[in-house]
Amino acid sequence: MILARDRVAATRAVAYFLMAGGAVVGTCALLVPGFAGGTTAGVFATVVTGGAMVLAGACCRVLPERVPEPFWVGVPMLGVLIIGGLNLATEDVSVSAHLYYLWPLLYGATFLRQDLAYLLLAAASVSDAAVTFTLQPVKVGVTDVAALVTAYCVLTVVVTKLRGRADALVAALEQQAMSDPLTGLPNRRAFDRDLAAALADGRRTGAERCLLIIDVDHFKTINDTWGHATGDKVLVQVAAALRSAAPEGGASVARLGGDEFAVVVAGDTLAAQRIAALARASVADMTDLPDGLPTLSIGLASTRATAVEPEALLAAADRALYDAKVRGRDRVSVVETAPRRRPRTVPQP
Question: What is the mean pLDDT of residues 201-215?
Fold first, then answer.
């Protein structure tokens, strides 16, 4: 993975750098005497280069998703070469000529992986030193090169470190936004994302996907009788039971809210029924309330029986859950046919 940040944002940043740089180069070649070496050929070559940069930038701005992966490293590297070539061709070692190297360096430090950002830093430093020592005596240019390379290093290191810290904070916030603080399970937002991804994968591969909606029976009574601390304990134990029942990589568990949980199963109805049975057995083994063990009502729907849109599958599982409650709770109800048909209750052992 070349990029450390969003692909579209990185490509658009390249677009802005290319368009701005191309416009500056072309304008200076036409309006600043001696900028392109003072020859017609130099002016023509510089204007063409600037125009190509603007065109490439416009393409990136319009079609950021179509840019191939090597482009993200290739463009700033090419930018370093172009800057060095133009500085050499125009025999320009002024401060403004050196400052152009900051553009690709800033991009690399902001968007590229740290090792690639440092590789770009090395390329810019070598290019700037080569041009400076070619156009100036070593004794004259060494001070400039030392100061500029130090500035390039400070810029790259500071920006990459700040970016790393910002990325870590964003990752922590995303984790908090996607997690239920009580049980540690993914929350409803994460469930919606995981369900959509699972169904999209099922459509692509033709594999069956199932959804379990789980409700703790008489949870309000547990809260009212034994207090919310006991109710929270029950929810934590149910979450642990669902985690232990769901195979790693084959199912994702989430808390939808209150006493309702969901399991997205990458498998058929039989696999989902096994998870439901294991979860119910695990709850019976783990939970200890003075008036007995809590039980689970579970609704099961599969993509073989319903439309593959998330809303349709969720609605079917909700209907199956309602059927399980109507039939006395503590059971699993399965939707096996079209959504309008009545769910079938799995015989209980």
Answer: 93
